[in-house]
Amino acid sequence: MKFGVFDHLDNAGVPLGELYANRLTLAGAYDRAGMHAYHLAEHHATPLGCAASPGLFLAALAQRTAKLRFGPMVYLVPFYHPLRLIEEVCMLDQLSNGRLELGVGRGVSPFETAAYGLDFAQTQAMYHEAFQVLLKGLTADELSFDGKFYRFDRVPMLLRPVQQPHPPLWYGVSLPENADWPAANDVNVIALAPPHLVRPIFDRYRSTQAKLGKTAQTLLGIGRHVIVADTDAEAEAIARRAYPHWRASFFWLFKRNNSQPRVAALYPETFDGVAALNTAVAGSPQTVRNFIAADIAATGANYFVPWLAFGDMTMPETLRSVELFGREVMPAFA
After folding, report:
1. 205 lies in a domain?
2. pLDDT digits (tens, 9 = 90+) for 144-188
3. 233-252 pLDDT, tens per residue?
4. Which of 84, 49, 89 is nearest to 70 (CA)?
5. I want to staple 4 with a disulfide (CB 3.0 to 4.6 A). Which of 55, 190, 208, 305 is the partner?
6. Which CATH number covers residue 262?
7. Which residues constitute the domain of residue 99?
8. 46 and 128 part of one domain
9. Does residue 325 share a domain with residue 224?
10. For residue range 260-292, what is the model confidence (pLDDT) as tens digits?
11. Is 195 within a domain?
């Protein structure tokens, strides 16, 4: 069982520079706690994601950590020129001596897509084509490609990642049928859904692996809002205050456009509501240990990826939560 961290780097109600500095301080705490990896979401034009250029933030994180692996979850691939993305991936992997985890995806928000002047109806096809270019460019001496959206003619590829042929790949999954491609291509996955919805996804992933004779030890991760404090009451008080702040950021861009996100039902108005879906926990180390054990049994996950900083959680609250999680929760699943 491995543990990582998922982060939107959402607005915490502090100045932007302070927000970045705080998250980099937390990265050091994740490193000391023995977390496997830090997964950073990419969003645009919304308070949900203040790391609009995840590579820039991750470059700083690479210099403040020693063992913690890290990466975007996910790069919104159609938003990038493929050549620029190839070069950025190589640089991040070199700067960290091979600690990059490479998450890729299309992007799910039509409003963020429109802000970049992209046609949401086209971005799925753009993503698949750009992904081919990305993998080819990370391994080729010269990049040639002739597609609908991208064309390259013998472009010299002078940069290389440390990890060959490329850093480990990651993908977000929400439906069982979406598990076939990552299972067939040894891609790690993270699901952000209640246990009863996650289990069919992971069962299909493993079934596809078995049918294809795949033996790669990939990670099947689940993302949860988690707060650990010395007592249940203390943790619940923090969660009930911080979660609505995070939720407001999550819904902000959709409300601005008089719309609702597709996954709105997964994020009720209160922390108690989301905890009732078994996708969040706030409590003492024992309470959190019990929650994780039940979640693993229900989903079949082998990777637990909590939000440990969200909403208006203060730095002392978050650092204490990380400390307790690393010292009193993680060892129970070693």
Report:
1. no
2. 999 999 999 999 999 999 999 999 999 999 999 999 999 999 999
3. 999 999 999 999 999 999 99
4. 89
5. 305
6. 3.20.20.30
7. 74-169
8. no
9. yes
10. 999 999 999 999 999 999 999 999 999 999 999
11. no
pLDDT band at 99 (very low <50, low <70, confident <90, very high): very high
Domain assignment present for residue 135? The answer is yes
Tokens linked to 12: 């915490």
- Structural domains in the chain (count): 2
193 assigned to some structural domain: no
41 lies in the same domain as 132? no
pLDDT of residue 280: 98
What pLDDT score was predicted for residue 132?
Answer: 96
